[in-house]
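Protocol step 4 of 6: record predicted structures for both targets in the notebook before any analysis. Target 1:
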Amino acid sequence: MPKGRHPLKGKLVCKRKHDDMGKVTHYKVHYVAKGFAQIPGLDYDKTTALTACLESLCAIAHIAASLGWELHQFDIKTTFLNGTLLEDKQLYMEQPSGLKIPRKEDWVLHLMKSIYGMKQASRVWNIMFNSAIVSWGFIHLSCEWCIYFRLSPSSTVIFSIHVDDIFTTTSSREEMEAFKALLQTKWEISDLGPAKFALGIAITCDCPSHTISLLQTTYINHLISCFEIGDAKTADTPMVTGLQLRHPDDSAPKPPEVLKWRQQTLYRELVGSLIYLAVAT
């Protein structure tokens, strides 16, 4: 390895992928880098997350519903493994435990492509994806870099990209098939068919009535289970009656019941989850 550099460590990450009803559809196992140990300026400089705004997804759904167009989803397999690292940004990684090459246990791996967990993995993928899409004649909105469109006298294609999920609508089924074939020339994709589930949101389309419904019932049930509030009772105002709020004294000792509550309650996670519900649907 070059002097002054250190190899990244890795670990296995196992995930369950769910459908719009919350059922497990398949299992995924990734060997990822421990990106939290990367040093800014040495191991990476810029980071970019390719995530579309929720308003973008709703806008595309609205266009599809009003014009009677189909909504479709594609997923690009092993997304981050497609990005090629630049020559001046070389990275190294320790050999996975249990898979070390005999008599070369102290050797390291020279990464040619990005890998899940790396700080810059999403940016490397973004650069590659944008380059390919633009070469096919697509234009991204100046106000929303995750929405691309292509217009022609006979067809229209509009889609949003959220990391590796493509949410698209086209003016005809033939154009949808042509767009799918275009993606397959560059990457291995999964054709998820008509849009049903995206970003934790269930999608129900009714083309004859030109309506699309967005639901988060599965996500809400997951929160109820995760935060163990299944037996909670409803209340118009979920606050203790007559509670007097005051600024806490950090120097004063905390009552045991407060310390216990703080350890058991994922307060920030709960607030963030409720904000996502409020913004999404």
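Target 2:
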Amino acid sequence: MPSKPFSVNTSRYDPYKNYRFLVYFLPGTTAVAGVSKVGGLKRQSPAIEYKEGGNAIVLKGLGRTTYDAIQLERGVTYDTDFQLWADYAQKLDKGAPSTSLANLRREIRIVLCNEAGAPVIAYTVHRCWVSEYLALADMDAAGTAVALEHIKLENEGWERDESLTEQQET
């Protein structure tokens, strides 16, 4: 007999939806306003092939783990959180570039919520910095879409917050 997919809410069989989430800039406790999309958390550990004398089989070992960039997207507002963070990588001041290494990297927290808005899974992403910033997406006078701002975050790894456990749903 297969196991139940949820240990506490045993009558629940459907997985969590991907439209209820929060993003925090740590150590802050307020979610970043208006984030509409978060690119996936992905890591890769490639295999390294090697041969040993006397062994007819090609052996495989674990290579270095890499973490893919994370995309954050939101509607354009007067809030400047994304722009200020992107400016730490490079900002032009009267045509001269400047960089702020002290403020370049930060920790973020991504929280997935259930349909009722309760946090169910959370990840902390370490040492993020903005490698790409789109201040204003393509504009089209014939369109009806929301104006979007986008950042691409390089990071040095992420981990799941195991202290956040499944809560009884009402």
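Step 5 preliminary note on target 2. Helices lie at 81-89, 101-104. The chain has a mean pLDDT of 89.
Proceed to step 6 after PI sign-off.
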